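User: Run a structure prediction on this.
Assistant: Running it now.
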Amino acid sequence: MLETARDLTLEAARDATAARRSATRGMSTVHLKKLLDSRSERDVLEGLRRVIAMSYRQEPTHSLFTHLIKNIASPSLEIKKLVYAYLLQHAESSPDTALLSINSIQKSLTDQNPQLRALALRVMSGIRVPVISQIVSLGIKRGVGDMSPYVRKAAALAILKCYRLDPGTEPQMIEYLAALLGDKQYFVAGAAVSAFLEVCPDRLDLIHPHYRSLLRKLLDMDEWSQLDTLRLMGNYARRCFPRRKRRVKRLIDKRGTSTNTKGFYDGSSSGSEENTSNKDAFYDEIILDPDLSLLLESAASLLQSRNSAVVLAVTRTYLYLGTDSHVDQAIGPLIALLRSASDIQYIALHNIIQVCLLRPKAFVPYATHFLVRSTDAPHIWQLKLELLTLIYPLCTSPLQGLILSELDHLSRGHDTLLVREAVRAVGRCAQNSDGSTSSRCLRLLLSHIHSPDGHLVAESLEVVRHLIQRDPATHQSIVIRLAKNLDTLTNPYARASIIWLVGEFAGIDPENNIAADVLRILVKGFVDEAEVAKLQIVLLAAKVYVHYLNLTQPTASSFEQSAQVKTSTVLAPNDDEDRLRESTFAVNKYEPDRSAEDSLKGPEHPIVVIWRYIQLLSRYDTSYDLRDRARLYRSLLAVPSSTQLASLVLLAPKPVPQAPSPSETRRDLLLGSSSLIVGEEGGIGGLRGYEKLPDWVKESEEPNPGLREEGFDNNYGEKREVSASEKLEVMESEKTLSNNVVGGSNTNGHKQKALNDWLDESDSEEGETEEETDEETTEDDSEGEGSETDEGEKVMLMKER
């Protein structure tokens, strides 16, 4: 039996393989036409499947279009679905042939099966032939009033397609949207919101009567509708709810005293202190509109959504519309997105950084979630390092030690990019912290100097240079310590950074600096240095020479000052003035000759000798840049007595370098937008289609809050469907008004009914109904010749009754 079973299994497998191959094997066009024209439903289905498979394989099927369209009138739902699928794909290529199926699709709109009606409406709106836009509009109108919510949802989605096909149908589409936005089914209202954002996003008057009902349906909508609704409500809230604030006094501190305690008899001399204490004692509290609070409360449950886009949308709503407490609620769900796939992590980290730039303190408890893992991709750990640097100044001392240890470990790795980013992260941590924490980071960077990794040493010294520039007076010892390492450092960029530091801070204490000695040592190996280091050595020589000239040579400014002092006094003889003028010109003109004479009298100063030696070495160097740079310095210092321009160029104070967060340029971009992820590559204004949130509406300019009442008539000129119960109420009120006018009137023209009158009417309601029926029958008989009684006579008859 086992062998028989084995044979049967192999045979079945061969048959299945043959059937699969035959299904994918091509068939002639003549055979396909016979299948499509067959009366057998099975043959037609087989032909349709083969034609659709050919179309997806991009094989030509235009010759079969007419044969396939004939089956659109088939009663089989499966055949119609396949025909509709083919029609949507090839309607634009053969619009004339596609129009032949419109009549059959219109007939399907009245079918008893709601699924078929919705499918017909979807196909009709998907045929992108502008000629049928009005026919599609009529089909949408029929779908809006359909009893099946499935068909109404298809009508809401068809509104968007019809508007794209023919923007001239916008007034009709707006009328249909006004009815669908108030639909009781949440999936119909969600589809209507999606169409509203595309067709008429500025017509907020359509949202007023349905605002609260949409919020009640928000939790039940599908995820895409939730995204569109939250986006709509964000714009609606900014334009309809003003941002109100009030001054609130702070609570009493732990010692039991208020922050603004001041005696009654205190003098008025400390007015500034009083103003300062008053500012500290009060803060601005945001007052939320009740309808805005309803939006924030309705969106709270969506933070537990399985869709990361919904979580980001709720966070955006809380960040731009809510208070700090609302933002704190969204921090945890945002952090939970880091457990997702790498692509979702990347998007989540960008949005977390955007929130962290505004509220970094809220992310301090989650610092361990931002530690780099060995499996993280470069674009992931770069964002994690940025987050660590943002929250570092607000962390406690143990947590700061943990972050620095993490950065130190990463900086000693083998990945060059990771080493560079880790060292720069340490520099940003030191830049944004106080003095004690900054010195801690500086010690960590200085420990990298003796590392065998040249990239680590170069990056560390670059960051150290930036930190020293922030407070050069307190870091002289560090500059000396760095200069001692010039004998062992081999990385040209590291040596260039140290040489620049020595030259930059040579003028802080001119009488006690090491710049000249460092220059003397470097000159010996000038020929063996790299070009980057040679440029800094030449710059160091120029700075040392300028400092020497400023100390030893009188400048033109000093002569001008002395001349001004002398001319300010009374000079009686003219020969004194001439003597002063001659002495001034003599100094400016013959100062170089005087220095030359002095040089002939005795040995030159070592700094002058080193300067000339550096100029001689640079003149015959192979680097064009180095020769040009040396020529520039030689021109600036050609006249030793005139060093003003040289001092201005070489010794000018340098601006303190700043290393902002890499995402600082994206601070103004909207949370959850694609432009936030793309960044600078999206352009200055973001990607095409990017829209910022509107500004908060000013007080007294917001719309009437009563418009959001569900029974409020907005009177915006839109036609509103009136139910049968409302029509009966209107007729009853008109009848009561006419009775009051005939029976009597008060000062306002209306008769006041007593309580007994109301009770008598309620008791005799059934009898009056029968009498009214008999009376109407009598009146119809008396009006056989077409005459009508006057309205006042009818009222009198009813009164007599």
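The longest strand covers residues 244-249.
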